[in-house]
Specification:
By secondary structure, the chain is mainly beta. It has one helix and eight strands.
């Protein structure tokens, strides 16, 4: 029997409950827990301490699969909070042309017209 540690838990491993029913697949590994991707349910961070056994390709938890939500383990934010923030575009120069449909700014009327034809089919 091997306990769960960041060195034994790997992305892509199958995660099952103590009843051997599938919980999901390891999506990310951190020092104290790992993120499990669950079909049709919110992903959940499972603490390493909740791992009963690790084999070459699977992880067994110390709770049945149907009781994972009862553990109140944290989930990642619904907005995808772990993704890096998108770069903020540079502000348009003074006197820029503004698209009234999507709010994009352009340096010339020609660029705005090209954008509206391509992006908004106008």
């Amino acid at each position: 029997m091997t306990m769960g540690t960041p060195s034994t838990v790997r992305v892509g491993m199958c995660v099952v409950g103590s009843d051997r029913d599938e919980v999901g697949t390891v999506k990310a590994v951190r020092a104290a827990d790992f993120l499990v991707d669950r079909r049709m349910r919110r992903d959940v961070y499972v603490p390493m301490a909740a791992v009963r056994d690790v084999t070459a390709d699977s992880i067994m938890l110390d709770v049945p699969a149907g009781r994972v939500d009862d553990q109140h383990w944290p989930s990642p934010p619904l907005t995808g909070g772990e993704r890096p923030a998108a770069a903020t575009p540079a502000p348009a120069p003074a006197g820029a042309y503004h698209c009234p449909v999507c709010g994009a700014d352009f340096a010339s009327a020609a660029a705005l017209a090209d954008h509206r034809r391509a992006a908004h089919l106008m």
